Amino acid sequence: MEKANFSSFFEPKSVAVVGASEKPGKIGTAIAENVLKLGFAGEIFLVNPSYTELFKQKCYQNLDEIESQVDLAVVVVPAKFVLDVVKNSAKVKNFVIISAGFAETGKEGAQLEKELADLAREKGLNILGPNCLGFLNPSLKLNASFAVGMPEDGSIALGSQSGALLVAILDVAKKENLSFSLLVSLGNKMQLSETEILEQLEKDQKTKVIGMYLEGIKNGAQFIETAERVARQKPIVILKAGKTAKAQQAISSHTGALAGSDEIVEAVFEKVGVVRTETLEDFLQTLKIFSAAREFSNEKVAVITNAGGGGVLATDAFKGKTIQLADFSDEFKFQLQKELPAEGSVNNPIDILGDADEKRYAWALENLEKEELGAIIAILTPQEKTPVGAVADLLIDFKKRSSKNVAAAFVGGQLVEEARAKMQKNGILVFDFPEKAVEILNRFYVWQQRKNLTIENGESLAESQTENQKMAGEILEKAQKSGRKALDFLEAAKVMELYGIKTVQSFHLSGTDQIPQEIEYPVVAKIDSDQVLHKTDQKALVLNIKNADELKAALADFQTRFNGEKVLVQSMLSRGMELILGINRDPIFGPIVVAGLGGIYTEVFKMVDFFVAPLNLVEIEEKLKKGKTSFLFRQTRGQKEFDVKELALIIQGLMNMAQDLPQIAELDINPLFVYNDGQAAVAVDVKIIF
User: Hey, what CATH topology would domain 295-452 get?
Assistant: First the structure.
């Protein structure tokens, strides 16, 4: 597919509205009025075969009748006519299809959308939609949508899979002081999806932060590659819907999107550096702050407050954060104390007391300007003598002279409303509450750290040897040809060995076999069959068999209950820490490696992390150290830590296996015994299903 050209698609010099109208209540009327009346300076053409004139200008019968170049056509005609409009437009390459009635409506609509996509590929067209609101480019005063009005020109780019949500955001934009470089309704994402929009915004100098409301992600691998690259240059803030099964069902009927597992989405966002928000309010405030924030010089933050309680809440909010309250030197405290009452606090937070006027705030700020700080948060509650407006003016003036991030948490309602609005317009980072200030400033600093981080010594994800891949493939192919749906353990062990994963010593026996005398007891006996995948539940496992008589009894019992099935005999290992590892093939993002606490309570505790390829060894190790099993890799109450690199190598081997052997549908190692006494990790039970 030819990628959309940003300059001609979203910055056109000429626009045609196909399906334009003057009838009240028609979408074609709303779009025509928006393009004509909101200040767009380019050429505008109206197209509708039912009219010769609209809005006192010529109306064309079709696009080909227009002699001039048309950079963009906005199409709002019934779905059944869209294909003909696009097919018969020889000169136009860029289309916004507003019309609904495609994949979101069912089988017939999906077929119509497929035909439109085929036509786009055949003719090298770029299509936004169908079933979308359109887009707005405030710098051009171009509203190529049926949303009302024109937002302020700014540095936030917004993509939304919901047109109605985009309309709502436009309505609150003025109140919340949000200004935009671009707003795009993604619709059904037939061709231009979130990934293509990210690619274009990567190059857009007007855009400082990218926000997206998504219900599903179209091409997982392409999204990962693009988002990871873009997020190192500009923050990507995403509000992702569809966490529950019911929500995912609703999404399918709403836009035809396929929503993936939320845990996997979370892992993908973490991998690529996306800032994820949980609510619409949080999403909008994060976009607003990120668009105005300056780069932190360091992680240290100072807090000034006229309310002791506000200072305590702010202090608590720093727990677990990357940004930290700065420690002040004795000299700094001595200087600060000169203008503060004895009852005040010169520690951090600086408590200038409830009767503070703007002079106390000014004195604290002037002293803090000399300190090495990334940000200053000024907390204010509107007490009886508090000059709210004067403090706001002071912060605005200070921000103009300071290189630090200046944030204000003015806690209150009507008494602080005017001051908040004024500060927002002048670039102060304004919050309703101190905890939110700490939370969002921390998000920005974490993103900044990631942007500036370069992994220089990480080993790349090793490419599997071709011979190993071939041998593993032959094992799988042989089992498939025999009509089985899973490998037996000995076959799976051979595949594990090819990818550097050790398995427990094992052999097969049947009830009629002579028990070898050289067996070293104790041993374990279990049924090894693709028909018995959950051995504990089906009582297909006997532990701690101490001698030949006990083994013979176990074999006889299995022969009675599982006639004809193979019996696997394994060495009874000393019990290590039980982990589970596996390969899950997500329909959106492809192979995902799962690793965490194993055993019979795996599904109860769900202490697992998701590893999204590609990752190098350093990245895998770092994720393990920060993940749900991170306690294993540090000393705890005298217990020696486990080897993080050993587990990282096993995870890397599974990543290679998942990429080399797409015929593997599922893989479980449960348990993998890991030890902290020098013994090597061993896979005790392995399921490979195809």
Answer: Rossmann fold (3.40.50)
Please give the structure tokens belonging to residue 90.
């020889």
Given a cut of 70, whether residue 527 has pLDDT beyond it is yes
Q: What is the mean pLDDT of residues 670-675?
A: 93
Question: First CA to last CA across the chain, in angstroms?
Answer: 32
Q: Is 198 helix (H, G, I), strand (E, B) or coil?
A: helix
Residue 164 pLDDT greater than 50, yes or no = yes
Lowest mean pLDDT among 210-219, 365-374, 601-610: 601-610
Assess whether the region 151-292 and the region 505-571 belong to the same CATH fold: no
Name the CATH superfamily, with its identifier, for domain 1-132: NAD(P)-binding Rossmann-like Domain (3.40.50.720)
CA 323, distance to chain mean position in Å, is 22
The pLDDT of 109-128, averaged and rounded, is: 96
Q: Degrees (nearest 5) of the Cα angle 84, 88, 93?
A: 105
Hey, is 593 helix, strand or coil?
A: strand
Check: CATH 2.40.128.110 for 505-571?
no
* pTM, two decimal places: 0.90
d(CA 394, CA 451): 32
Going by CATH, does the domain composed of 151-292 fall within 3.40.50.261? yes
Statement: residue 635 has pLDDT above 90: no
Dihedral over alpha carbons 582, 584, 589, 591 (to 10 degrees)? 60
DSSP characters for 362-424? HHHHHHHTTS--SEEEEEE---TT--HHHHHHHHHHHHHH-SSEEEEEE--SHHHHHHHHHHH
